[in-house]
Hints:
The complex is a heterodimer of chains A (103) and B (160).
Chain A: E1 5-12, E2 15-22, E3 44-51, E4 54-61, E5 70-76, E6 83-90, E7 95-101
Antiparallel strand pairs in A: 1-2, 2-5, 3-4, 3-6, 6-7
Chain B: H1 2-28, H2 43-47, H3 51-59, E1 64-65, E2 69-72, E3 76-79, E4 83-89, E5 94-101, E6 108-113, E7 118-126, E8 132-140, E9 143-155
Parallel strand pairs in B: 1-9, 3-9
Antiparallel strand pairs in B: 2-4, 4-7, 5-6, 5-8, 8-9
Amino acid sequence: xxxxxxxxxxxxxxxxxxxxxxxxxxxxxxxxxxxxxxxxxxxxxxxxxxxxxxxxxxxxxxxxxxxxxxxxxxxxxxxxxxxxxxxxxxxxxxxxxxxxxxx
Amino acid sequence: xxxxxxxxxxxxxxxxxxxxxxxxxxxxxxxxxxxxxxxxxxxxxxxxxxxxxxxxxxxxxxxxxxxxxxxxxxxxxxxxxxxxxxxxxxxxxxxxxxxxxxxxxxxxxxxxxxxxxxxxxxxxxxxxxxxxxxxxxxxxxxxxxxxxxxxxxxxxxxxx
Lengths: 103, 160
């Protein structure tokens, strides 16, 4: 199965620009389905990004983050070909992880 | 069977070790409240319904307004389900950035841990129930700063 995570990270002038999209419903627990029943909360809680062995970013998310969340940040260092590992864990204990290369 | 037990024991030992370390770190650098436990999802802060309570739960202090935080939000969001919010700041030694949305059921939307070497910039997208203030909080050198912008929402994004 294709990964739920898509990453595009580009290094230029000593700074890596990290962009990612994660496929996830991010149900807040406040929305009703077509039958009027509340859809239970289902959202990503923590996203961690590692460059080689160093953690460069941690996002703690609540249910207010949009469906199929987008995340962008920048860090110093990183060069073409370096591995970046992105992983997430949601409130139901599901998780995914993938390693991308800096472009 | 034996292997499983060993694994469990190992896990337990590791967990207590890590907790001990975290507690130790907390004692040494009390001001870096959120930074001492990066792996811990701030449960209590995410449960708070208003901005002040969530800020207190997350950082243990109140924020001072700063014009050095730049927040990019649309003035009018046609779709409350996807409101792009970008924050950047020229404040030094940033360890954490958090975003709060006043009109949502829970105030805290997201908090970001910024390790050394990572630039104080983040872009994310949020759901907004109704027109309200969006607050960006920045922890810089152990002090908390904030900036506020109002976003008009045409169609709410929290359903109901």
